[in-house]
Design brief:
With 629 residues, the chain is mainly β. 6% of the residues lie in helices and 58% in strands.
Length: 629
């Protein structure tokens, strides 16, 4: 019966793909390669970098009506998104088998990972004011230091341009979902400005399964002489989340969760950044930034009625990170760029009534880019990072890209080392911490090729990657108090393939597919890494049958994943999303356009859990209206 249901599901998905095609908007056949900044810390055409890089644009958010950042990242090859249940629940990201602790997440270059847990909470990042998201896969510690073993996700906010413009959007859906958003921006003389406010709430599928997220964002810039610019960015959000899954001691969570009726969490985040950049002469550009990240998280779980042996739990965790960086790039003609950077980082965390600790880090990095004949591009560099607790780490990375322009071919490859710093919890939390911990380390390499065919209407890519992880930090049981501790005692390996294809099938029809195969193994246990599927597929089509109408379909498939020795595997799943935009009104007075929007996630009502014990939502529809001024 399960097989028949899956066959019926795939058949229905096939019909939907034929009827409602998905993925990026149809464009002219001639495309311009994007310019990225995350791969080299300065603006560089993507074709000139040897690392695997993907870009999610502001246009993607408008086309697919992503309500959250994690939904926008699901279609990127090599990435795995794991949400623990419904909207607002904890959401993490892994890249090529590297855990969430080993992936660096930035907003305008500012680290937004918690110093205590070591993870970035994607549900706390609003999709407001996003111009693009650049995703680097592979080790990036030579540029970004600790916690960039698996890659970097850099969310870049939009700068105001041109006359004032604004967008107002309202959406409603099942599960009592309501989403409201307003944004605007523009430019006046030497000033540029952009702002946004949003609200997202939903009641979820269980009792005590609701969430409410509110966010404010703003960016103010000023143009200065000598090709200079100064910008101040502020982002605030608060997420109130009900947690319906009851913790069960000493065993894995059941597939069907036990409901906790009064467990709740609140998270409030503030990110502030002041950045200045200048290029007074063609051969030198300089950029400086100071920033501050704050997060306050409260957790409450009173005694549940009806349980004889239940116990209450409460916590209040406050963290702060202050950063300063200064980067200088020196250009020698068109063939050489040397980049030198200095960074300082101060981190502190407090679990009220438990512990309070702080660390500081100083870093120096150097990178050299060489360009030969407009075809061969070499990049190499290193970083020295000194941590106040565990000492100094040095990481290196090198890459190359070679263009065969007459064939539309790009060959690329690279290798590098990385490390993940122990968190404040690892080092200082009473009862299990270990101040003698060393960083997790890695060495990774990759080779790949990209091909354009049919006057660039077809775009293909293939990458092979290999990662070796050492000194992994793990919990171990002890025969004496405190009975549990963290130690450097594990090793792991991942390798695999990322393949992608995108085609402009017609002028109004674009299709894409990408596939990731990941083979992983934990040394000594002869088992794959937990929650890392062997196979992932993303399929999409976007169709514009009328000038006013755009339709899309996206299909996400993941194979089963190893959970642990007790329960074995968490089964795989296939999720189908569809939607579209209809422009109901064109220019009328101040109105630029009025659009009707729709997005339906999990159309086939697939029952699955990205994290075992935390069931994902069934079919979720969100429809609304968007007005642009």
């Amino acid at each position: 019966m399960a097989m028949e249901a899956r066959i019926r599901g795939w058949a229905a998905a096939g019909l939907l793909l034929a009827a409602f095609p998905p993925f990026a908007k149809a464009q002219e056949s001639k495309r311009v390669d994007p310019v990225v900044v995350t791969a080299t810390r300065i603006e560089t055409p993507a074709a000139e970098v040897g690392v695997a890089v993907s870009v999610v644009t502001e246009e993607d958010f408008r086309t697919y009506h992503y309500a959250t950042v994690d939904e926008a990242l699901r279609s990127v090859p090599g990435l795995e998104i794991r949400r623990s249940g419904s909207l607002g629940k904890t959401t993490s990201i892994t890249i090529r088998g590297a855990t969430a602790n080993q992936v660096q997440v930035l907003v305008d270059g500012v680290r937004v990972k918690s110093p205590t847990t070591g993870q970035a909470e994607l549900s706390d990042i609003s999709p407001d004011l996003i111009e693009r998201i650049e995703i680097l896969r592979g080790p990036q510690s030579a540029l970004y230091g600790a916690d960039a073993i698996g890659g970097v996700v850099n969310i870049i906010t939009r700068r105001g341009t041109g006359p004032f413009s604004a967008t107002v959007q309202q959406e409603v859906g099942n599960y009592d979902t309501l989403r409201s958003r307003v944004s605007g921006g523009g430019q006046w003389k030497i000033l540029d400005y952009a702002f946004a406010a949003s609200h997202l709430e939903s009641n979820g599928q269980f009792k005590n399964d609701g969430s409410e997220a509110r966010a404010l964002s703003g960016r103010l810039g000023v143009a200065l002489p000598w090709d200079s610019h100064l910008a101040f960015v502020a982002r605030w959000n608060r997420t109130d989340t009900d947690l319906p899954v009851k913790f069960v001691c000493c065993g894995p969570l059941a597939v069907e969760p036990l409901i906790d009726v009064n467990q709740q969490q609140q998270s409030e985040t503030l990110v502030l950044s002041l950045e200045g950049k200048t290029r007074p002469v063609p051969w030198w550009e300089s950029r400086g930034r100071i920033s501050r990240f704050e997060n306050s998280m409260g957790f409450q779980d009173p005694v549940d009625p009806g349980y004889a042996f239940d116990f209450p739990a409460f916590s209040q965790i406050n963290v702060e990170r202050r950063e300063a960086e200064w980067i200088n790039a020196f250009h020698l003609g068109k063939w050489s760029t040397s980049t030198v950077g200095l960074e300082y980082r101060h981190e502190e965390g407090e679990n009220k009534g438990v512990f309070r600790s702080r660390t500081h880090t100083q870093s120096l990095f150097f990178e050299e880019q060489l360009r030969f004949f407009g075809r061969l591009f070499l990049t190499g560099g290193f970083r020295v990072e000194d941590h106040s607790v565990f000492g100094t780490e040095t990481t290196e990375r090198g890459s190359l890209a070679y263009l065969i322009k007459g064939w539309g071919t790009r060959l690329r490859g690279g290798a590098g080392s990385g490390f993940r710093a122990p968190t404040l919890n690892d080092l200082f939390y009473p009862g299990f911490s270990n101040p003698a911990l060393k960083p997790e380390t890695s060495f990774s390499w990759e080779v790949g090729a990209d091909q354009k065919l049919w006057q660039e209407r077809i775009r293909l890519g293939l990458t092979y990657f290999h990662n070796d992880f050492d000194n992994l930090i793990r919990f171990v049981m002890l025969p004496v108090p405190p009975f549990v501790a963290v130690m450097n005692l594990a090793r792991a390996r991942t390798s695999g393939i990322e393949a992608m294809a995108e085609a402009d099938l017609l002028k109004n029809l674009v299709g894409s597919v990408n596939y990731t195969y990941t083979d992983s193994e934990t040394s000594g246990r002869n088992r794959p890494l937990a929650r890392e599927p062997h196979h992932r597929w993303n399929v999409g089509l976007t169709w514009e049958p009328l000038a006013r109408l755009s339709l899309f379909t996206q299909v996400h498939t993941a194979s089963r994943q190893f959970e642990d020795e007790t329960v074995g595997y968490n089964r795989g799943h296939t999720r189908v999303d569809v939607g579209g935009t209809y422009r109901a009104l064109d220019r009328y007075g101040w109105l630029q356009a009025v659009e009707l929007t729709a997005r339906i996630q999990n159309l086939l009502d697939e029952g699955y859990a990205e994290v075992r014990g935390f069931p994902a939502l069934g079919t979720q529809a969100l429809v609304g209206v968007r007005a642009r001024f």
